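During the no-cost extension, the postdoctoral fellow (Dr. R.K.) reprocessed legacy sequence entries with the updated structure-token encoder. One reprocessed record is reproduced below for audit purposes.
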Amino acid sequence: MTQIISLTDLTTKMKVDRQPDQTLVLVTGVFDIVHSEHLKFLRAARQKGQILIVGLETDQRVLRLKGPGRPVNRLGKRLSNLAKTAIPDYVFPLPIQFDTTLDHQALLAVLRPDILAVSSHTLHLDKKKRLMAKYSGQLKVVLPYNAEVSTTKILKEVGF
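Re-encoded structure tokens follow.
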């Protein structure tokens, strides 16, 4: 069962509970309306290791990234919806300040994931790959982008 957890508690839990032979996979994103491509992506990420953790963007950052009217679902609901999929082991809110390379480095420094799982349309792939290498991890594209299914497209189709 997926646990909703704070970053502080997750960091402590990983230091205490994670076994040396366990591969930790990190995913980050918005997950505003969980749809079929999200589920495929999460399942593909899950196959890359023994522990899957998913960090969700704050409502303030989603508004900046996606524009007015977003997120459709507030952070608490998005965490709950993602937990209900039972695919990740843990879901947690990303830091409120998560805009710069230094912010991303700070997250990687405390979590130390082995793999950052992304889709093929993720922005700044080269930069993220270099950051992961700095912390002895890898960036892995686990799913090609499917332009036919996205939260933005779904919202447009329903007139949102």
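The two ends are 32 Å apart (CA to CA). The chain has seven helices and six strands. The remaining legacy entries will be reprocessed before the final report is submitted.
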